[in-house]
Amino acid sequence: MTHTTKTQISWLKVGAMAALLAAPLAVATPAVAQQYPSADETLDWTIAFGPGGGNDIMARTIIEILTKYDMYPGDISPENRAGGSGAVGWGYLFAQSGDSYGISTTSGSFVTTPLQADTPWQPEDFTPVALLATDDLVLVVNGSSEIQDIEEFIAAAQASPMNIGGTGTVNVDFIVPTLFAQKAGFEFDYVSFNSMADQTTALLSDALDAMVGNPGEILGLIESGELRPLVFSGQNTPAALEGVPTMGDIGFDIGVSMPRGLILAPDAPAEAQDWWIETMKKVVETPEWAEYIATNTLTPTVIYGEDFRTFLGNTKNGFEVVLREVGAID
Amino acid sequence: MDIFSDLMMGLSLAITPINLLYLLAGAMLGMIVGVIPGFGPSAGLAILLPVTFGMDPVGAIMMLAAIYYGAMYGGTITSILLNTPGESATVASTFDGFPLAKNGRAGPALVMQAVASFVGGTAGVIMITLMAPMFAQVSRSFGPPEYFLLAVMGMLTLIVMIGQQWKLGIISAMIGFALGTVGVDLETGQGRYTFGSAELIGGIYFIPIAIGLFGLGELFYAFHQGTHKTGTGGIVEYDKEERFWPTKHDFMSTRMTMARNSVLGFIVGVIPGAGATIASLMAYSTERSLSKHPERFGKGEMAGLVAPETANNAASSGAMIPLLTLGIPGSASTAVLLAAFLMWGLRPGPLFMEQNPELAWGLIASMYLGNMVLLIISIFAIPLFVQMIKVPYRILGPCVIVICTLGTFSVHASFIETYLMFAAGIVGFFMRLYGFSPAALVLALVLGPLAEEALRQTLTISRGSFSIFIERQASLWIIGVTLLLVVGLPLLNRFGKSAGDAENVGS
Q: Helices B41-48 & B17-35, crossing angle to 10 degrees?
């Protein structure tokens, strides 16, 4: 991704020197706003997970869009700093407090990791840029199941408790069905798996009654009829799941989802935050972004700046309440 | 569906100069990455995945498949030469691979592992080509009860490994099970022995432990023995001219081993999540039970190396079945391939092969070519690798420590894992000194959490009833096969032997 050549650097240096010499001559205030982002600062883009994961794909999609439309003047250096369920990468960004050239994308672990471990940071500590999309879940049963739709499912679950599989416990996979069951008035046994692959196999082998999962990963199985989608946890059903009601549609809205957004280091300068908010407004309008949302069946939910901080705080508190209730965290 | 015309179409896509170049580059990169302790196929794929960004999908998938296979071939090299398994699937290859190298047969051992890998890998691809839909049924009949039974089956192989020193072996396994409890409890979500550390949420990863116990432990032991001061200071006296090629006997005595374990490895590989590790262990213990000379296992028996090597490569082909037919990744490596599919905007699932015939059959064709390319690369590269053990120990030792540290740290960029590796190295030295079993410890660490999770999932599903294990058809099959392997084979073996041989075993 580094395009800067030696000659360019020296020219940029000359330019910067000239700017410095000229600065006292110019009127001070508007010049500050002009300076971010500076073309000779490399943007240090932390990806808190390994290549190929959801977080990585989102970060690289945004970088591709920024590069393609020349929205960012300098170099962008994406680094995968994986480890400790995101603690390593976001810890690295946390240490850049006050810097305007450290940036990262968030995902579910941004909220759940601090609940599980003593991370020095909390999600609200970072400078929020924007919530761009949410990851929502679909409840599915085996294609050979007698249950045809969500009403039948709820009726069957009220008659005799069912089991529902999901990935992990301190996770939206557990919280979504728990809240949904409370609202719809049925009981269930949650079966926790290590990965989407394990739980899908368990459902296909008829060991599980139902499971929740990200539609993107099981769309192929839904399309072929191996799995039957019943209900979607997001605000709007994605095109690929046409005809499936949302939890809100049937009157049991739970209002919890996983945030996919963009953050800067804590206490980043306001002009950096403003610049990124304005830039992201352009990014979400591009056809490439629309395609990303569609292929990954995300729900486009856009919130900017401080509202995103509030959203993160609310999500974290909501999780904490449910998880404390069931004793998953102390 | 005409399989052969599809395969021809795949081959014609694969055999373009640029795609062959990608294949060759991938195979070499994979092999180099696989040789570094700590980098197995999945870590190698994840790290090299960004290289394929922006490539044409057919070329990219060929390169990724080649990296996958290359790492499988390369991973065994350090198991044989340095007793350091690069990943869990090659732990079983150290049992007889390293003794072979110590006996001065490093060259034949490396050639035979390349041949075994080739046979296993190619047999696997042939089975994919001919019977993918049939095996898709196998991979969809496995749920938590079956995984628990499989893990138990794997644990039975522990008994084979522990052997004579059973008290020390049991202690070793118990340490492994104890380490396996670290991490977030999957069912309740509570941290167990994580001490608030985010790096321990996911539990103790076995790679640093295996590298420490086997690689560093062996190294410290060699220094303790004063190997670096004696003779040429190398591990063994080694004469390339005379002892490079395997003997006719090596090939003839292991041909049935390769045939059996290609099938066994493939079937286990088809089961999502079981994969190459369990396949290689089962292969080793089955082979030992079937052998006329079980007493030679662990002391440098060629069949003891060929069996796990054939099986783990056949299993890595088998792991493609759930990926291609269901869109479910059966292993960490195929999960990276799945991520690549998603990144190209593809929709993996039962309709994947129909909707993307070019990609699916291009991938399958590249697996045939990849195995051939790797066999050739291996044959040429082995004389180079073998030079490694000629290096005096006083020079080789520190280099190995540096490479192990680098490899362990780079996989997850974790200091805790690096410290764990060094701690395991010291423990491994004492285990070696007093006759404990590092293999039992590592396997318990791999299988313990698998068994625990699967059992708790099973009992949540069955609401506490154990009868679920005999109500499901797939479970009954596994119980049957386990009984056959554990009770049937040894009995058969005993009766089949002549009296003289039986006395031999007894002594």
A: 130
Residues in chain A within 8 Å Cβ distance of B322: 197, 201
- Asked whether residue A55 is assigned to any structural domain, the reply reads yes
Q: How confident is the model at residue A306 (pLDDT cuts 50, 70, 90)?
A: very high
Q: Which residues of B touch A50 (CB under 8 A)?
A: 46
Q: Is residue A64 assigned to a domain?
A: yes
With an 8 Å Cβ cutoff, are B190 and A327 in contact?
A: yes
Q: Say whether A329 and B189 touch across the interface (CB within 8 A).
A: yes
Of A209, A241, A273, the residue that ends a domain is: A241
Q: Tell me how far the alpha carbon of residue B42 is from its chain's centroid.
A: 11
Please tell me which of A124-138, B99-113, B180-194, B489-503 the model is most confident about, judged by mean pLDDT: A124-138
- Structural domains in chain B (count): 1
- Chain B hits for A2, Cβ within 8 Å: none
Set of chain B residues whose Cβ sits within 8 Å of the Cβ of A191? 144, 457, 460-461
Q: Is A10 inside a domain boundary?
A: no
Say if the Cβ atoms of B143 and A88 lie within 8 Å: no
Q: Which residues span the domain enclosing B152?
A: 3-506
Residue B423 has pLDDT above 90, yes or no: yes
Same domain, A59 and A47: yes
A125 shares a domain with A266: yes
| A231 and A279 housed in the same domain | no
Touching B: A residues 252-291, CB under 8 Å? 291
pLDDT tens-place string over residues B393-409: 888 888 889 988 988 88
Q: Contact B322/A201, CB-based, under 8 Å?
A: yes
Residue A122 pLDDT grade (very low, low, confident, very high; cuts 50, 70, 90): very high
pLDDT at residue B499 in the model: 43
Contact at CB, A88 and B191, closer than 8 angstroms: no
What span, in angstroms and rounded, lies between the C-alpha atoms of A176 and B115?
51
- A76 and A124 share a domain? yes
Q: How far is A310 from chain B (nearest CA, A)?
A: 25
- Pick from A58, A113, A194, A201 the residue to mutate for testing the B interface (most B CBs within 10 Å): A201
Query: How many CB atoms neighbour CB B134 within 10 A?
Result: 12
Q: What is the dihedral of CA A91, A94, A95, A99, to 10 degrees?
A: 150
Query: CB of A201 within 8 A of CB of B140?
Result: yes
Residue A154 φ/ψ, nearest 5 degrees: -60, -45
Whether A123 and A48 map to the same domain: the answer is yes
Tokens of A221: 């199985």
Q: What average pLDDT does this structure show over B216-225?
A: 88
Quote the ipTM score.
0.84
Do A158 and A93 share a structural domain?
A: no
Task: Compute the average pLDDT of residues B292-314.
Answer: 90
CB contact under 8 A, A220 and B145: no
Residue B341: how many CB atoms within 10 A of its CB? 21
Asked if B273 and A82 come within 8 Å (Cβ–Cβ), the reply is no
Residue A2 within a domain: no
- Is residue B137 very low, low, confident or very high in pLDDT (cuts 50, 70, 90)? confident
Domain limits at A95? Answer: 42-135+257-326
For chains A and B, CB pairs below 8 A equal 175
CA distance between the termini of chain B: 58
Number of domains in chain A: 2
| Token pair of B418 as six digits | 């690096």
**pLDDT class of A220 with cuts at 50, 70, 90:** confident
Cα→Cα distances A320→A180, A257, A317, B316, B460, Å? 17, 14, 5, 41, 24
The verdict on A61 and A210 lying in the same domain is no
B163, pLDDT greater than 90: no
Query: What is the model's pLDDT at position B307?
Result: 94
For residue A154, the domain's CATH number is 3.40.190.10
